[in-house]
Protein 1
Amino acid sequence: QVQLQESGPGLVLPSQTLSLTCTVSGGSITTGYYSWNWIRQSTGKGLEWMGAIHYDGTPYYSPSLKSRTSIFRDTSRNQFSLTITSVTPDDTALYYCALKTKDGTAERDYRDARSYGIWGQGTQVTVSS
């Protein structure tokens, strides 16, 4: 069974770069045709899809975050990572990595929480000085 585990710093200073890693076990991130995603949830807000990296290494970003976000992978470690530059307190959230298990390639499919069958437990990130 595929399992996901997020890791990263709990606290980041404003204007710095946030880096998170998702370690995958029980399956390969190169297996077609899955996509591996980053999703976050801020206090009082709904889930926000941030972006994905497909099984072939192609990234796909939310338009609203594309300018500050990068998603890449390390196939030797079976991990994929997220970086966000120039963070602000608005980036404070619980960050999840998740495997999209339902079909659909439209952006709305990625934004639908029902598309994801496997989630990590989440890691809290606070942006504060």
Protein 2
Amino acid sequence: QVQLVESGGGLVQAGGSLRLSCTASGILFSMYVMAWYRQAPGKQRELVGVITNIGSTNYADSVKGRFTISRDNAKNTVYLQMSSLETADTAVYYCNTAYKGVRYWGQGTQVTVSS
């Protein structure tokens, strides 16, 4: 059974930083692409960025230069380091992977950026 568990969300002031973590179980973590998504109130879920099994990354234009995705395969964990946070970054953040054709999501972690 694949499980993804996010942590690290919270309340932060604009301009601040936060690091989210997502720990996976039930898959051979090192083999899989991992992604971070977010969903703001009243908006559709959007892709924040992805990291491949070999560590290549790609980001949405809205977070390029501010967010960094990394992974620690020994800990089955993917990270989202967020810096220079803006109020527009307020959302529930989810990690995601696809395993045997099925997409899996974590429960999400709330990030609130205050002005």
Protein 3
Amino acid sequence: VQLVESGGGLVQPGGSLRLSCAASGFTFSRYTMRWYRQAPGKERELVATISSTGGIRNYADSMKGRNTISRDNAKNTVYLQMNSLKPEDTAVYFCNVRNGVDYWGKGTLVTVSS
């Protein structure tokens, strides 16, 4: 299993970013995918979840209304569109899949700062 996140960077408050996670090594279309984040000095927290077909999506309260998780099963990729970003959204964002064990990518850093 390999998960490779991309799309992070420095953005001003109120800005937007779209994160991507390219997956390989498993049958992507059969699995729920998740985005987590970990801010400096804090525990990793769940941000969003999308079911295998994309029909069910759930979001953490902290980012509800500002995020959209989506997936393209033909491209084995899951996305996280983040809008109205705040400084407290600064974190490393990780892609996750669970197949008996948790698999993680290396993460992509999002920094929200003026």
